[in-house]
Design a protein that fits this description.
2 domains, single chain, binds S-adenosylmethionine, Rossmann fold, 16% strand, alpha/beta, elongated, 42% helix, seven-stranded mixed beta sheet
Length: 333
């Protein structure tokens, strides 16, 4: 496992700024964030003041030349665009040329693009969750092969509320490629964690990612990846899982499947429960279409399920667009 950079603690202002900027570049690069969101202005100011390429060299070491990039690289296209942008900024400032920058671009230009790439999400503990994701947002007829913002938000909420998961059995519905669940397993100490989904290629990718992050039963808590279709999950199956807490991110997006999701949530909340009582149920959603989301809430109400909105500020750990409307709700009967 690699140690990644940590954001700087308060101290020397210049060193602090530079460390934070390097951290920002690293976090954004490994998560393949849009290039326009990188802190280029800081780099430009540094280049204008110093005329040396020291900062560019450090950025390169924390991104394309970092050991994590050798093992779990972002897509070829992304690395090419990133290096081209770095060179463009450096040349525009007429800073001293840097051979390793052109060498790195040369290597990427000779590499072949695949249908999959790695995205890595750096954790506060310094490790990283690396995920094999699809280069396309929707591929193989499913939305489950990339990580969604509501899943990143729920993972951040979990990092801020680790006690909610510690020592408990967690069931995740619609896990996708696994960012939220792997973050919980790596940082929150659940006693058991059941990832689930229904789509064949998502389940395959999920299993690969669970293994990639060392959670295949050798080092992690009791971790399982199961096929669990919301329309087909029986009470016996749910009883056997015995979850104390059920989580799901970005599962409210298709009006056609809301009905079976609500029925399942009702079965989870009403079914025979572990000694501590019914499980806690947390659903994190990006509200893209208010009609679809309202339909979900109305169906919850018709099923006799109440909810509290518990969205609140969370520590900013992962890079993603925070402008989208995300709501986290807790369900109860
Ligand atoms: C938008 S993705 C969200 C993935 C992940 N939770 C995240 O936030 O990145 C929705 C996920 O729900 C899964 N899903 C959709 N319908 C389902 C069903 N009926 N049963 C189980 N999983 C389902 C999809 O396969 C997909 O992985």
């Amino acid at each position: 496992m690699f140690r990644m950079m940590n954001a700087q603690q308060p101290g020397d202002q210049t060193a602090g700024n530079t460390t934070d900027i390097l951290h920002d570049f690293q976090v954004s690069f490994f998560a393949m964030r849009r290039l326009a969101t990188f802190p280029w202005t800081f780099l430009e100011k540094e280049l204008a003041n110093e005329k040396t390429s020291e900062l560019v060299s450090d950025i390169l070491k924390q991104t394309c030349l970092h050991p994590l990039c050798q093992k779990h690289p972002p897509s070829v296209k992304y690395r090419r665009l990133f290096l081209t942008e770095l060179i463009r900024r450096q040349e525009a400032a007429e800073a001293e040329p840097l051979d390793e920058l052109y060498d790195a671009l040369g290597q990427v230009l000779g590499a072949e693009e695949g249908a999959e790439c790695y995205k890595s999400y750096i954790l506060p503990c310094g490790g990283a969750v690396s995920l094999l994701e699809s280069v396309a947002v929707i591929s193989d007829g499913t939305t489950g092969l990339v990580t969604w913002e509501a899943g990143l938000y729920l993972a951040e909420w979990a990092l801020d509320n680790q006690q909610a998961f510690s020592g408990r059995t967690v069931l995740e519905l619609g896990s996708g490629v696994g960012l939220t669940g792997i973050t919980v397993c790596r940082s929150c100490g659940p006693s058991r964690f059941v990832f689930s989904d229904c789509h064949r290629s998502v389940l395959q990718k999920l299993r690969d990612n669970v293994r990639l992050n060392g959670l295949d039963g050798r080092t992690g808590p009791g971790v399982r990846v199961e096929e669990l279709d919301w329309g087909a999950a029986t009470e016996e199956r749910l009883r056997e899982i015995g979850a104390n807490i059920v989580i799901a991110a970005d599962v409210v997006y298709d009006p056609d499947v809301i009905g079976c999701l609500v029925k399942l949530l009702s079965r989870i909340l009403r079914g025979s429960s572990p000694p501590e009582g019914p499980p806690e149920v947390l659903i994190s959603s990006t509200i893209r279409n208010p009609d679809t989301y309202n339909c979900f809430k109305l169906q919850l109400e018709s099923a006799g399920i109440s909810h509290d909105v518990i969205t609140g500020p969370v520590s900013h750990v992962f890079p993603y667009n925070r402008v989208s409307a995300i709501e986290l709700i807790k369900l109860y009967i």
